[in-house]
Structure formats: structure tokens, C-alpha cells
Amino acid sequence: xxxxxxxxxxxxxxxxxxxxxxxxxxxxxxxxxxxxxxxxxxxxxxxxxxxxxxxxxxxxxxxxxxxxxxxxxxxxxxxxxxxxxxxxxxxxxxxxxxxxxxxxxxxxxxxxxxxxxxxxxxxxxxxxxxxxxxxxxxxxxxxxxxxxxxxxxxxxxxxxxxxxxxxxxxxxxxxxxxxxxxxxxxxxxxxxxxxxxxxxxxxxxxxxxxxxxxxxxxxxxxxxxxxxxxxxxxxxxxxxxxxxxxxxxxxxxxxxxxxxxxxxxxxxxxxxxxxxxxxxxxxxxxxxxxxxxxxxxxxxxxxxxxxxxxxxxxxxxxxxxxxxxxxxxxxxxxxxxxxxxxxxxxxxxxxxxxxxxxxxxxxxxxxxxxxxxxxxxxxxxxxxxxxxxxxxxxxxxxxxxxxxxxxxxxxxxxxxxxxxxxxxxxxxxxxxxxxxxxxxxxxxxxxxxxxxxxxxxxxxxxxxxxxxxxxxxxxxxxxxxxxxxxxxxxxxxxxxxxxxxxxxxxxxxxxxxxxxxxxxxxxxxxxxxxxxxxxxxxxxxxxxxxxxxxxxxxxxxxxxxxxxxxxxxxxxxxxxxxxxxxxxxxxxxxxxxxxxxxxxxxxxxxxxxxxxxxxxxxxxxxxxxxxxxxxxxxxxxxxxxxxxxxxxxxxxxxxxxxxxxxxxxxxxxxxxxxxxxxxxxxxxxxxxxxxxxxxxxxxxxxxxxxxxxxxxxxxxxxxxxxxxxxxxxxxxxxxxxxxxxxxxxxxxxxxxxxxxxxxxx
Length: 761
Known about the structure:
This protein is mainly beta and about 750 residues long. About 5% of the residues lie in helices and about 50% in strands.
């Protein structure tokens, strides 16, 4: 291993030195003349001092004189009196240069809401790219504009709101400058856009009841703006940011000053829901059901929100994307249920245990998943992903001064072999120093009878510029009957992360006891010590700058050592070279080496019973991947690999064409094949996924997901029709079906209709 690392570092250094030596509206009325003239491309500026530049980016708050009509035209007289944020600065591709086309932003407010008027200049508006108008659209695939609001002005947390020239909406909560980012949060806000001859315009209205902020009579909020020009693959910001950061770096945001007399209102939301469904299993007769529930949200203080839910239903949630599992560990499927996603960042514990995406994007497939101390899918879902009814739940979450608080309690109903169970999660975290925090967590699971499971832990995260230091310790408590005798019940971790525009270095070490029994978390391995690391460098080759934007060469290590015999159970090393191109495409090549010491057999193909037998295995995989520009009308992602696999051989193929007829219609196909030959058998695993999304407008959507998995010989389909009939109020019509691929027989079918209606006070 030492020799391989030394060789890799030698090659990296040679490449670096070689590269270093290479050649290297009222607004509309007021700005009629400027908008009629070509939006000239701007010239380079002097170097920027990022540590102080944001102090000069300040906007005085202006109370609107008269009403504002959201029509995307900025033709109310009030816009004339609003100071303008302009002179946007690139952070990619030409860090520190003025934006190719500038953006003008004005801010107004009244008793009810905050307003943003945006004019995004563009010489060639016919070349504007809009890939999608779906709710929470992919902001990286379209031209767009995004706002970050730090309403407590703590330079850590806030909200994000984004739109594109077609008026699509995206929003998110962020904490600790993006270390925790909840893109599933939904706020009440509106936007209208228009496209003209010299650019596009947007009017955004964000009601104060959507936001949390202090009770001060005069307030200053942190604010920054991002403009994306997709055909140039360019990002620019009002308050300039180094290339390594994005809009979530609110400690470098500007400010809007002098907001007066803001009141969030009563901040009470009541959302009743009604669900009716028809379910068929096999050849049995269809059964119907009808149920009602209600969700309540109340702002207890300016920073704390109390949520309450009764008869919670998640039937409208999109089906899980199927995965091929070629490891001996459980798969991790992401949480998709709204109630558990909102404010989920508060319950995250500790820093990342793995060295940050060592695959460089797609270099490693089927990697074992990282441990999570609290994993909400253990609530209301069985091990195979089937729903277990939830009677009621409550959550208090938010901030009180420098303290973040999360309290969650859920009562799960009894179903089959699953007893009625109560789940509790308590999380507190306090900000210290400039960008650091310390915290504690307590988890409790109480089932019927003497069964219980508890977890208590402490964590600390220190951030000093480019350097992050993290650590945590946790212990579990369970009845003696639930764990074997003699094993440790704790987990510990320490790590650091140094990441600037040129270098990346991450290293972490953890120990997981053999009796660490966390039933509210995801713990794929126990009784092991881990060592995870990444070392890499990025540079921009000037000689190839017309084609290549950035090269990234890196080495990645994941090692697991058994406590039982102090032997290496698994060791993965990846040596990868990734290139990002100017049009947004990327390519990666590399080799992945593996050591696996297997003590017990495990199955890698259930349908054929193909197994990996005990023994020590050393094998390597060579791979290459290519992803074309995903904002183009037709794009393709592809990967090929081959190499040894345990005591045999594996060839891997994946191809994923995607089609964008316009912003209304998007479709994609993903096919993954693994041709495997091992001592106990040969097989080809196939995983097919097809998506079709048709967006009638920004409030009516159809999503179709069709999947085939050869491991269980099943076709599954999930069809969803969604109408947003008023803010945060939906009608869903969902069709789910499973069929046996070999016989064509239907295994299950469900038709679900759900209506929600939000009343906000």
C-alpha cells in the first residue's frame, strides 16, 4: 500500500509541476435605454479580498410605497426608489472576473412580505436554457437566479429560494453554511417571470410568515444572490465568493439593512388531508380504504416551530429507486417522507465518516454505506420498505439564540409482527466560536413489553477557514437479551478535512463496538475500527482551457479492521483522474483495488443462489466513465469497468440516455448490467429504470417511474399525477403496481387519491 501511494503521489506532483510550467418595469422604464443597448461583456477586474468584500455589499431596506403586483414586469413606481444590487462577480469559470452579463436586483418590503425584483441581462436571450419547470427543479441544468437569506444574521443558517426564466420554484433550508441542507423544505412564496430582448426579469414575493427571524424592531439580514448562465457554465455572485464556495457560504454574504417593524404573524398552519385507496394483492379481490389526517404547524417563538401530525399518510411519496447489491451489507435507501425531511438537518449527528466522495463522482459503485446514528426510515417502515401506520407524532425544532433544538416523538401503530412502538429523538447543538458547534443527542425506542433501545452521544465540530475538525462519541443501552455478552456498546470517531481550491485532504478514524445496538440508526458493520481518507489536488490546465475546465486527481482509502482478531476485514483504495469540461460534461478513469476477508458466506444473487464463500480475496477493477452535458436536449451518462471480483471476474456496463424535448417534457432511461463469473456460478444482473416527467405548468405535474430488477424478477411501476391547487396544498393521484417478470402475474396493485388543503394564519 505504501508503495502504491508513493507512486500515485509522485505522478500527481509531476503533473502539477508540468501544468505550472505550461502556457498559460419602473425598473424597466428607468433602465429602458440601458436595456435596449447590447449587454456588453465586461472586462477583468482587480484581485478581490474575499475576507472583506462582503462588508461593502450592503442594501438599504426600502418600504414599498403602494402595492406590488407580481407580473414579472417591475413597472410599479416603488421599484424606482429601491437601491440596486449589481456588479456580480464570477466564481466559476473565471474566479474574480465580472459576470459576462450583469444582473440587477432591487429589494422592497411591506407589512406582509419581502419582494425581489431581478433583471438578468443577456445579449442572446434566445439561447437561454430552461431544462425543467418541475417543483424543486434541478438548478444546475438551467439558467437561473438564487437568493440566500440569513434572517438571524448569525452567518451560519438561512433559507434559499431559486427560480429560472420559466418561473419554476426551488427552495431549501440550510444550516452551518450548507453542512446540513434540506432541499425538501417547502415555503409559501410566489414568483413570476418574463423574457425580453435583452434578458429576463423575475418578481419574487416571500411572505414574512414563511421565515423565522428575531423580534427586534430594526433588523439586518444577511443576503446574497447567485446568477447562473448555463450555456456558459458560469456562476456569479453579488457578494463575491471564492470558487471553492457556493451561495450557502453566508458568512461571506452581503446584507439588507434597516428592516423595520417586521412581524411574522400568528404563524399557524393547519393542513387536513383525506386519502382513499384501492389495494389488490395477487389474485385476491381489491379492498378499499378511506382515512383522514391533519398536520398542524405553530411558531412557538420567532425561531422554534412545533409540528403535530395525526394519522400521518405518505402514500403519495415516490417509490424507492431499486439498487443492485453485490456486497454482504444492507442497502441504504434515502428518506423521502415530508414530515421527516423538514428540519432533518437538526438531527444529523457528527461529521461525515467517509472521506467525502472518494469516487470523484462515479468512480466507485456499490460501496458500503456509512453509519448514521439517527435514520428516520426506522420509523413507520418495515425492513422491506412497507408502511407501518403512524398514529400521531410531534416535533419541536428550530433555533433559540445560539442553540439549535430538535425534539421528535412518534407513536407507531401495531401491524402484524411489529408491535406498537414509541420513538423519541432529542437533539441540541450550541454555536461556539465563529463557525463551530458542540452538541448532544438522545434516542429512545420503546416497544410493547420490556423491549427498549436507547442511544446517547456527544459531538463537536470546529471550523477554521479551510480546516474542519470533527469528533463524536455515543453509547447504546438495551436489555441483556438484545445483545451478546462481552462486547463494547460504544462508537467513537475523530477526523479532519482540509479543502481549498487546489488541495483536498481528509482523514477520519472510528471504532464501532460489536454490541453497539442502535435500532434507530443505520449501522452496516459492528466490531470494527475504520480508517477513511482522501488526498487529491485540483488544477485548471491553461493549455487546454478552451475544452477542459478542471482536472482532479485523487486517492481514496476505506479500511475496516476487525476487533475480534485485529485483521483487515476490508480495504478499498481508489486512484482516480476526473476531468470537468467547459460545457458541463465530465469524464473519469481509474483503478479500484480491494481486499476482502470473508468469515461467513453471503449471497450476491438471490434468484440463482450464487454465493461468495469464506476466504481472503484481493481483486482490482479498472473503469472509465463519461457524462455529457446534462442541460443539452440529449445527454448520456455511461460507465464501463472490468476486473477481478472475489474468486472470479466482473464486467460492468451502465448507460443512461436522457431526453429533453422542452421544459415540459423530460425522459430518461438507465440500464445497469453486471456480467459476473465466480466459483459458485455465473449470472448477469440487470437493473432498468425509466423515467418520464411531463410538467403541464409550474403547478401541475406527471411523473412516471418504471423499474425492472433481474435479482427479484420484478417489474414495478409508480405513476403520480400532482396538482398544486393552492400554496402547499396538493391533489395526488398515484398508481403503483408490481409484476412477476417470469409469469407476467400481478403481485400487487394500488390506486391512491389524496387531497391536502393548507390554511395559514
